[in-house]
Amino acid sequence: MGLDGITAHHGHGHGHGHSADTDRRRLAVALAVTLATAAVGAVGAVLTGSLALLADLGHLLTDAGALAAAFVASVLVQRPASSRRTFGLGRVEVLVAGINAITLVAVVVWVAVEGVGRLIEPAEVPGLPLLVIGALGLVGNLVSLAVLAGGDRRNMNMRGAMLHVLGDALGSVGVLAAALVLILTGWPYADTVASLFIVALILPRTVALLREVGHVLLEGAPRGIDTSDVQAALLTVPGVLDVHELHVWSINDRRPTVSAHLVVDEATHVGCGEASVLDAAAGLLRERFGLAHSTLQIEQDDHTDHEDRCH
Fold first, then answer.
1. Mean pLDDT score across all residues of the chain
2. pLDDT digit string, tens, across residues 160-192
3. Which end of the chain is least crowded, N or C, by CB within 10 Å?
4. What b-and-e string marks burial along 204-220, b requiring 16 or more CB atoms within 10 Å of the CB?
């Protein structure tokens, strides 16, 4: 095999079948509880006319979508790659997360506009039904949070689901606070203020999620990995003279990937084995940066000149 085209793909699968199955069950239970809580909130919003409940309902429905996406993604990600989809279906959860975030932005904007209108003309909202429904919602949120808390904390999908449910719980606290203020003081703006509080709580997370989705879809470097650091580290591998065509991206938030061309000197052993440049570079990427999926091409300096002429 010539030096010009030695390419290696290092893929390291980590089988956590039992853990993955358990996490899927936890996501399914949390989704069922969230949908039940959303149904209660929808009935309450219709009966009371509460904007805070409506804002919390939008949050609940969006989070139900996020939980559903997490569940579906946990199933689809197990499907093997094919000749048409060489990376499998790992990007499905990224696309669904983007759709969820865009939907949530629409809900937030509508609630904010309606809230401003109610600050001018406050609506009458009964405090006691709002208190009961808010309490039921909080119980549902806490149950879902307890279920998800027992999952795999290393799984970013599970951690993201937990953050969504935690946001729901904080929204329910806002509804309860509005109900108590209405019961104790009759202040007509309590419900509206609570709804705007929920909007302020949701919006930063939504924007952050959209930015993360866009970053992944635009093949940006994963969070916490600086490509200049990766290049500098590869240049420390004995025998490596230069690094070019370096690309670091991710299929989803748990599958960072790297590819690069490594220019070596003629005397360097480029075969396989512990002493090779190929294995040394792949091991460095895996251990220092967590880049377990690497595609590295080893080439001599004259091949680099040839590439420059071609480009």
1. 79
2. 677 777 777 877 888 888 889 888 888 888 878
3. C
4. eebeebbebbebbeeee
